Amino acid sequence: MKNSVVIFLLFNFIFISNAFFDSKIVGGSTVQLGQIPSQISLRTQANVHFCGGALISGRWVITSGQCTSGRAHNSINAVAGTVTLNVGGITQRSVRIVQHPQFHIISLANDVSLIETENSFTMTQHIQTINLGVANLGENIAVQLSGFGATQSSGPLSNNLQRVNVVTITNAACISQLGNQNLQVNDAKLCTFLSGRGMCTGDQGGPVIDMNNQLVAIKSWNIQCFQNFPDGHERIFVHRNWILSVIS
Protein backbone atom coordinates (compact mmCIF):
# COMPACT_ATOMS: atom_id res chain seq x y z
CA MET A 1 0.00 0.00 0.00
CA LYS A 2 1.14 3.53 -0.62
CA ASN A 3 2.17 4.88 2.76
CA SER A 4 3.64 8.33 2.22
CA VAL A 5 2.49 10.61 5.05
CA VAL A 6 0.67 13.66 3.74
CA ILE A 7 -0.08 15.81 6.77
CA PHE A 8 -2.36 18.33 5.12
CA LEU A 9 -4.85 15.59 4.21
CA LEU A 10 -5.61 14.68 7.82
CA PHE A 11 -8.76 16.79 7.86
CA ASN A 12 -10.40 14.30 5.50
CA PHE A 13 -10.70 11.81 8.34
CA ILE A 14 -11.63 13.83 11.43
CA PHE A 15 -15.23 12.73 10.99
CA ILE A 16 -14.51 8.99 10.85
CA SER A 17 -15.42 6.79 13.79
CA ASN A 18 -12.46 5.43 15.72
CA ALA A 19 -14.31 2.14 15.90
CA PHE A 20 -13.53 1.60 12.22
CA PHE A 21 -10.39 3.62 11.42
CA ASP A 22 -7.45 3.97 13.76
CA SER A 23 -6.52 7.67 13.79
CA LYS A 24 -2.86 6.72 14.16
CA ILE A 25 -2.63 5.19 10.65
CA VAL A 26 -2.04 8.35 8.63
CA GLY A 27 -0.49 6.86 5.51
CA GLY A 28 -1.09 3.18 6.17
CA SER A 29 -0.42 0.71 8.95
CA THR A 30 0.26 -2.94 9.66
CA VAL A 31 -2.87 -5.02 10.27
CA GLN A 32 -3.07 -7.14 13.41
CA LEU A 33 -4.41 -10.70 13.29
CA GLY A 34 -8.21 -10.70 13.34
CA GLN A 35 -8.68 -7.06 12.32
CA ILE A 36 -9.64 -7.93 8.71
CA PRO A 37 -10.69 -11.59 8.99
CA SER A 38 -12.18 -11.73 5.48
CA GLN A 39 -8.83 -10.89 3.82
CA ILE A 40 -7.57 -13.55 1.41
CA SER A 41 -4.11 -13.97 -0.09
CA LEU A 42 -4.26 -15.67 -3.50
CA ARG A 43 -1.15 -17.71 -4.20
CA THR A 44 0.31 -20.00 -6.81
CA GLN A 45 0.94 -23.67 -6.13
CA ALA A 46 4.48 -22.59 -5.23
CA ASN A 47 2.99 -20.41 -2.44
CA VAL A 48 3.77 -17.09 -4.17
CA HIS A 49 1.25 -14.31 -3.49
CA PHE A 50 -0.10 -12.64 -6.63
CA CYS A 51 -3.44 -11.03 -5.70
CA GLY A 52 -5.82 -10.30 -2.88
CA GLY A 53 -9.39 -11.41 -2.34
CA ALA A 54 -12.22 -11.45 0.17
CA LEU A 55 -14.07 -14.39 1.72
CA ILE A 56 -17.81 -14.01 1.03
CA SER A 57 -18.95 -17.51 2.04
CA GLY A 58 -17.34 -20.63 3.43
CA ARG A 59 -16.24 -21.82 -0.01
CA TRP A 60 -16.28 -18.68 -2.15
CA VAL A 61 -13.68 -15.96 -2.58
CA ILE A 62 -14.26 -12.82 -4.61
CA THR A 63 -11.38 -11.16 -6.46
CA SER A 64 -10.76 -9.24 -9.67
CA GLY A 65 -11.09 -10.78 -13.11
CA GLN A 66 -7.49 -9.98 -13.98
CA CYS A 67 -6.33 -12.10 -11.03
CA THR A 68 -7.88 -15.27 -12.42
CA SER A 69 -7.49 -14.58 -16.14
CA GLY A 70 -5.55 -17.40 -17.82
CA ARG A 71 -5.28 -19.48 -14.65
CA ALA A 72 -6.41 -23.10 -14.45
CA HIS A 73 -9.46 -23.77 -12.29
CA ASN A 74 -7.44 -25.78 -9.75
CA SER A 75 -4.23 -23.74 -9.76
CA ILE A 76 -4.96 -21.17 -7.03
CA ASN A 77 -4.39 -21.47 -3.30
CA ALA A 78 -6.61 -19.21 -1.19
CA VAL A 79 -5.02 -18.45 2.18
CA ALA A 80 -7.06 -17.01 5.07
CA GLY A 81 -6.43 -16.27 8.73
CA THR A 82 -2.99 -14.71 8.46
CA VAL A 83 -1.50 -11.22 8.27
CA THR A 84 1.93 -12.40 7.12
CA LEU A 85 2.95 -14.04 3.86
CA ASN A 86 5.73 -16.20 5.26
CA VAL A 87 3.94 -17.90 8.13
CA GLY A 88 0.49 -19.00 9.30
CA GLY A 89 -2.89 -19.17 7.67
CA ILE A 90 -5.27 -21.84 6.41
CA THR A 91 -5.05 -22.84 2.74
CA GLN A 92 -7.86 -24.10 0.52
CA ARG A 93 -7.28 -25.09 -3.11
CA SER A 94 -9.49 -23.76 -5.89
CA VAL A 95 -11.76 -26.15 -7.80
CA ARG A 96 -13.72 -23.66 -9.90
CA ILE A 97 -13.25 -20.15 -11.25
CA VAL A 98 -16.24 -18.13 -12.45
CA GLN A 99 -15.13 -14.98 -14.22
CA HIS A 100 -17.65 -12.29 -15.08
CA PRO A 101 -18.89 -13.09 -18.60
CA GLN A 102 -18.28 -9.51 -19.76
CA PHE A 103 -14.82 -9.10 -18.25
CA HIS A 104 -12.41 -7.29 -20.59
CA ILE A 105 -8.70 -7.77 -19.96
CA ILE A 106 -7.63 -4.52 -21.67
CA SER A 107 -10.13 -1.98 -20.32
CA LEU A 108 -10.69 -4.03 -17.12
CA ALA A 109 -14.45 -3.62 -17.50
CA ASN A 110 -16.44 -5.96 -15.22
CA ASP A 111 -13.25 -6.79 -13.35
CA VAL A 112 -14.67 -9.36 -10.95
CA SER A 113 -14.22 -13.10 -10.52
CA LEU A 114 -15.35 -15.77 -8.08
CA ILE A 115 -13.25 -18.68 -6.83
CA GLU A 116 -14.79 -21.80 -5.30
CA THR A 117 -12.54 -23.75 -2.96
CA GLU A 118 -12.37 -27.51 -2.53
CA ASN A 119 -13.40 -27.34 1.13
CA SER A 120 -15.07 -24.72 3.28
CA PHE A 121 -13.03 -22.49 5.52
CA THR A 122 -13.87 -23.02 9.18
CA MET A 123 -14.96 -19.75 10.74
CA THR A 124 -12.76 -18.63 13.64
CA GLN A 125 -11.80 -15.39 15.34
CA HIS A 126 -9.30 -14.84 12.52
CA ILE A 127 -11.34 -16.14 9.57
CA GLN A 128 -14.75 -14.62 8.81
CA THR A 129 -16.88 -13.88 5.78
CA ILE A 130 -17.80 -10.31 4.88
CA ASN A 131 -21.22 -9.09 3.79
CA LEU A 132 -21.70 -7.80 0.27
CA GLY A 133 -22.43 -4.09 0.29
CA VAL A 134 -25.86 -2.86 -0.81
CA ALA A 135 -25.01 0.83 -1.08
CA ASN A 136 -23.95 2.54 -4.30
CA LEU A 137 -21.39 4.89 -2.75
CA GLY A 138 -21.12 8.49 -3.85
CA GLU A 139 -18.20 10.89 -3.43
CA ASN A 140 -16.32 11.91 -0.28
CA ILE A 141 -16.96 8.59 1.47
CA ALA A 142 -14.16 7.12 3.56
CA VAL A 143 -13.21 3.53 2.74
CA GLN A 144 -10.42 1.19 3.73
CA LEU A 145 -8.09 -0.72 1.39
CA SER A 146 -5.95 -3.64 2.53
CA GLY A 147 -3.41 -5.91 0.92
CA PHE A 148 0.05 -7.42 0.75
CA GLY A 149 1.09 -5.20 -2.17
CA ALA A 150 4.35 -3.30 -2.44
CA THR A 151 4.81 -0.41 -0.02
CA GLN A 152 7.12 1.51 -2.33
CA SER A 153 7.33 1.97 -6.07
CA SER A 154 9.10 -0.99 -7.73
CA GLY A 155 9.53 -2.54 -4.30
CA PRO A 156 8.83 -6.11 -3.17
CA LEU A 157 5.56 -7.34 -1.74
CA SER A 158 4.90 -6.52 1.88
CA ASN A 159 5.30 -9.53 4.15
CA ASN A 160 2.81 -7.92 6.53
CA LEU A 161 -0.78 -7.11 5.62
CA GLN A 162 -1.26 -3.34 5.32
CA ARG A 163 -4.35 -1.14 5.41
CA VAL A 164 -4.87 2.43 4.34
CA ASN A 165 -7.74 4.92 4.38
CA VAL A 166 -8.81 6.75 1.22
CA VAL A 167 -11.80 8.76 0.00
CA THR A 168 -14.15 8.15 -2.93
CA ILE A 169 -14.28 10.65 -5.80
CA THR A 170 -16.71 11.16 -8.67
CA ASN A 171 -16.19 9.36 -11.95
CA ALA A 172 -15.87 12.73 -13.67
CA ALA A 173 -13.00 13.69 -11.37
CA CYS A 174 -11.48 10.24 -11.86
CA ILE A 175 -11.54 10.52 -15.66
CA SER A 176 -10.09 14.01 -15.52
CA GLN A 177 -7.15 12.91 -13.36
CA LEU A 178 -6.51 9.75 -15.37
CA GLY A 179 -6.11 11.42 -18.74
CA ASN A 180 -5.56 9.01 -21.62
CA GLN A 181 -5.00 5.71 -19.78
CA ASN A 182 -7.30 3.42 -21.83
CA LEU A 183 -9.19 2.36 -18.70
CA GLN A 184 -12.96 2.18 -18.58
CA VAL A 185 -14.53 4.35 -15.89
CA ASN A 186 -18.27 3.77 -15.83
CA ASP A 187 -21.02 3.27 -13.26
CA ALA A 188 -19.51 -0.09 -12.28
CA LYS A 189 -16.26 1.54 -11.17
CA LEU A 190 -15.57 3.25 -7.86
CA CYS A 191 -12.61 5.62 -7.83
CA THR A 192 -10.65 6.65 -4.75
CA PHE A 193 -7.88 9.17 -4.27
CA LEU A 194 -5.64 10.64 -1.62
CA SER A 195 -2.19 11.80 -2.65
CA GLY A 196 0.46 9.29 -1.63
CA ARG A 197 -2.03 6.64 -0.55
CA GLY A 198 -3.72 3.69 -2.20
CA MET A 199 -2.95 0.56 -4.19
CA CYS A 200 0.31 -0.85 -5.44
CA THR A 201 1.47 -4.03 -7.18
CA GLY A 202 0.00 -7.14 -5.54
CA ASP A 203 -3.06 -5.41 -4.07
CA GLN A 204 -5.40 -6.13 -6.99
CA GLY A 205 -8.47 -8.16 -6.11
CA GLY A 206 -8.40 -7.18 -2.45
CA PRO A 207 -11.31 -5.75 -0.46
CA VAL A 208 -12.58 -2.18 -0.31
CA ILE A 209 -14.51 -1.89 2.95
CA ASP A 210 -16.75 0.93 4.19
CA MET A 211 -17.16 2.13 7.76
CA ASN A 212 -20.07 -0.29 8.27
CA ASN A 213 -17.73 -3.20 7.55
CA GLN A 214 -19.43 -3.93 4.22
CA LEU A 215 -17.57 -5.04 1.11
CA VAL A 216 -18.31 -2.20 -1.30
CA ALA A 217 -15.77 -2.92 -4.04
CA ILE A 218 -12.87 -5.05 -5.22
CA LYS A 219 -9.57 -3.38 -6.05
CA SER A 220 -9.07 -3.27 -9.81
CA TRP A 221 -6.33 -0.95 -11.07
CA ASN A 222 -3.76 1.65 -10.19
CA ILE A 223 -1.64 3.62 -12.65
CA GLN A 224 1.61 4.16 -10.79
CA CYS A 225 2.37 3.64 -7.12
CA PHE A 226 2.87 6.88 -5.21
CA GLN A 227 1.80 9.07 -8.15
CA ASN A 228 -1.11 11.51 -8.31
CA PHE A 229 -3.53 9.16 -10.04
CA PRO A 230 -6.74 7.75 -8.58
CA ASP A 231 -7.25 4.03 -7.97
CA GLY A 232 -10.12 2.16 -9.62
CA HIS A 233 -12.27 -0.52 -7.99
CA GLU A 234 -15.14 -2.71 -9.17
CA ARG A 235 -18.38 -1.90 -7.35
CA ILE A 236 -20.09 -4.77 -5.53
CA PHE A 237 -23.47 -3.01 -5.78
CA VAL A 238 -23.52 -3.33 -9.58
CA HIS A 239 -22.59 -7.02 -9.61
CA ARG A 240 -24.39 -8.15 -6.45
CA ASN A 241 -27.16 -10.10 -8.19
CA TRP A 242 -24.68 -11.88 -10.45
CA ILE A 243 -22.47 -12.78 -7.47
CA LEU A 244 -25.39 -14.20 -5.50
CA SER A 245 -26.62 -16.19 -8.50
CA VAL A 246 -23.22 -17.90 -8.76
CA ILE A 247 -22.58 -18.70 -5.11
CA SER A 248 -26.12 -19.67 -4.10
UniProtKB/TrEMBL annotation:
GO terms for molecular function: serine-type endopeptidase activity. PROSITE patterns: TRYPSIN_DOM (PS50240). One of its GO terms (biological process) is proteolysis. Keywords: Disulfide bond, Hydrolase, Protease, Serine protease, Signal. SUPFAM superfamilies: Trypsin-like serine proteases. Residues 1-19 form the signal peptide. Residues 25-248 form the Peptidase S1 domain. Pfam families: Trypsin. Belongs to the peptidase S1 family. CLIP subfamily. This is Peptidase S1 domain-containing protein.
